Amino acid sequence: xxxxxxxxxxxxxxxxxxxxxxxxxxEMDHVWQDGGAYALLGASGCGKTTxxxxxxxxxxxxxxxxxxxxxxxxxxxxxxxxxxxxxxxPVVYDTMTVRENLAFPLRNRGRDAAYIAxxxxxxxxxxxxxxxxxxxxxxxxxxxxxxxxxxxxxVREDVNAILxxxxxxxxxxxxxxxxxTQLKQLHREFGHTMIYVTHDQTExxxxxxxxxxxxxxxxxxxxTPEELFETPEHTFVGxxxxxxxxxLFEAExxxxxxxxxxxxxxxSASYPAARGRVQIGIRPEFVQLADExxxxxxxxxxxxxxxxxLRGEAFGQPVNLLLPEEIPAAPGPAFLRLAPEKINVYADxxxxxxxxxxxxx
Amino acid sequence: MKRPGSALVMxxxxxxxxxxxxxxxxxxxxxxxxITRSFTLFPHDLTFQNYRTILTDPSWYMGxxxxxxxxxxxxxxxxxxxxxxxxxxxxxRFLGDKHLFFWLLTNRMAPPAVFALPxxxxxxxxxxxxxxxAVALAHCxxxxxxxxxxxxxxxxxxxxxxxxxxxxxxxxxxxxFVKIFMPLIASxxxxxxxxxxxxxxxxxxxxxxxxxxxxxxxxATMTRTVSASGLDWxxxxxxxxxxxxxxxxxxxxxxxxxxxxxxxxxx
Amino acid sequence: MEKSWNNRxxxxxxxxxxxxxxxxxxxxxxxxxxxxxxxxGNNEFFWAGLEWFEETVTSERIHAALGRQVLFTAIILAIxxxxxxxxxxxxxxxGFWASLCLILMAMPLLIPFNVVGTIWQxxxxxDIGLLGRTLTALGIDYNYTNDWLxxxxxxxxxxxxxxxxxxxxxxxxxxxxxPEAYYQAAKIDQASRxxxxxxxxxxxxxxxxxxxxxxxxxxxxxxxxxxxxxxxxGPGNSTTFLSIDLVKMAIGxxxxxxxxAFSIIYFLVILLISWVFYTVMTNLDRExxx
Lengths: 361, 267, 290
Fold this sequence. Notes:
The complex is a heterotrimer.
Chain A: E1 4-11, E2 25-32, E3 37-41, H1 48-56, E4 63-68, E5 71-72, H2 78-81, E6 83-86, H3 98-108, H4 113-127, H5 142-154, E7 161-165, H6 173-190, E8 193-198, H7 201-207, E9 210-215, E10 218-223, H8 225-230, H9 235-240, E11 247-250, E12 252-260, E13 263-271, E14 278-282, E15 287-290, E16 294-304, E17 307-314, E18 317-324, E19 332-338, E20 344-347, E21 350-352
Parallel strand pairs in A: 3-8, 3-9, 6-7, 7-8
Antiparallel strand pairs in A: 1-2, 1-4, 4-5, 9-10, 11-14, 12-13, 14-20, 15-19, 16-17, 16-19, 17-18, 20-21
Chain B: H1 4-28, H2 32-37, H3 49-56, H4 58-91, E1 92-93, H5 97-108, H6 112-125, H7 132-156, H8 160-168, H9 173-184, H10 186-202, H11 205-209, H12 218-228, H13 233-253, H14 258-262
Chain C: E1 4-5, H1 10-35, E2 37-39, E3 45-47, H2 51-58, H3 60-90, H4 96-106, H5 113-124, H6 130-137, H7 148-176, H8 180-188, H9 193-221, H10 225-231, H11 242-252, H12 256-288
Antiparallel strand pairs in C: 2-3
Helix pairs in contact in C: 1-12, 2-12, 3-7, 3-9, 5-10, 7-9, 7-10, 9-12, 11-12
């Protein structure tokens, strides 16, 4: 097991990429700590799978290096990297029994039979397929097959990392939750580095200690679920994480005061003069109804159990509020108060640090 | 190609396929004197006379017209009758469906040699002997079952919900079939047509038996000329080369579907 | 797919039924009719019972032709199926080279049968053919018109040339349907090249392979034109396969009765073997569905 370092990495599927748009993965440096449980979160087509395949060696990056510990493995084949990977759609060897499927990666590495038998039983118990061990894999349901794929991914104990590429897409919702819990438990037990690709924020936030958010071929933020929630480094993170996503208003910022179409909005800290397109962002949780503030029109009130989502419009932009159930709310004109300490300032989509503040590592 | 070993295998295999064809093409551009008297790997005395002979003599070139006529007729008939039948097999269960399907396939298994004589008598007795339609109908024997089989494979890949949605939207069956369903299985129709064309084009036993003069296929014209003036190798080779061309053209049009097509839509 | 029960679907099948009945049932009835009658010319027929059938099943000439036929079919299947798989595994997967290979490989399949015969007849001739000339120059005594072994080799190589591409294209189609993730998973699992073939590629090709074997079996069992053009069934009777024998009997000697009985038995044999294939295939299909 070892730390995985991506240095100066970029990838393009074209033979001679010219513009940045030709790159599926834009230049990046990133370190996956040994034993971390990571989620790689992003919309479809943002380069998550490309990144995963580069780590496992199925793809060779157009530029940059991949290091396992101190060893450069950029040109090493998949087999030499000792990585396990589970794919989005079930991959099972149809003509083998479930048992043979689970034993396959161990057999190929020449482990002895007694060890294999014991290990297969252990994994079968974990994925709940003890009863089906001697059935042919052909003809099983999609989620049974995917469980076998997961099992094959976890059967080797000595892997450098286990990579999951949206592994629960085809699984029933209640099974999803159970399997995710088992994966977490497995992580606690064996301490493998795990990288879990998903486009589902709930999945990412419940599985991972650290979430890596990707957008258009770039890692835009790496952080704990709280960090992603409190201080999104990029407007995409604000919008993609949280439900509903962060509210954004075009603004001018001067010192500790922002102006949205001339309406003053106090901030909790002083900001340097920002260039480009300046926006302020705030989570719907921290917007309240008030007697004065930003004028808005509430168009819809949705009751979602213990909360209400108020949807409306301010200065032609959609705006959302998340209010506890006991606060009365009705469609119509309203004023919004934004909690100053929860406001983030963005210039050209990237977060601007307040004067004197340092970026969290 | 990334693996040099694979490239070598393919080059060797393609050479094996192409060298005999090359030899035929090579001969077609030679004079008979060069063919019989010297042994040359390419024509030293390049001539187009063999092709000129064929393209100016109606008894030769009408052979191509005849062949193409019955092949196209056969393809049109086969596809037209196979489409509704394939739809029935892919969508409904009905009395005797499985037996009927198997019975249809058995006709693909019937040796043409078995049918040669009875066909001759049948078509003579109804006055169709030596007509294009006779050959086209005879070839339906093996092409219709094949077309049904291929089309059924492609149609089964189209979800039934599409039919149901169309009926709910008020489409009548014929309108639905032509406007919505046929475009969906266009590649299947192309593949089925390709196979009908292919098997009708390459078949000789039945087409020769059922024709004498007016609908005589090019392939049969070739055999007669060989036996009559056994030494005219150049013209024979040129005629052979010209029979490759329609096949080549058809392959070009369906090249993207060839692989799936040869699996009869069952991949 | 769940199919609904609907007997009106018969109307959709009627055109096919009428057409195939016209071109199959009527001629077959003629055949059956001949097979139980005898004639002394002048279109006068007499009931002959099962005499012709007895003659057919006991005829040494037909036994010999059947033996040659079975041997021929077995040999070409044994060569074409493995070779076809081998070629399919080495075909480029996509792009210009893949299209080129597909087009070139499909070429032999679209050549009229007798032209295939003509090509090999010329190619193998010792006086004007590249193959015959080359072999002779190498000091090999090769002449397919005199020597039965040379004739067999020529006919078999011709069939391999003609039809291996069909097997290869079918297998290629099967291989194309394997998602990339299977190969990636195999790499992750450190599977050997053989294991990839054995556990991923072969199972995916099984369905199309059965189609290939079925088609090659049927067509090689009915082969007529190609060997007839090259060898005329000779030297002697050494390449007289069932269809060649049948045509000789029916059209050459006009022995309608025996030829008809022969036809029926011939057809039934193919039918029986094909039915076995068909049953196996559909059963495997069913097993595939959960």
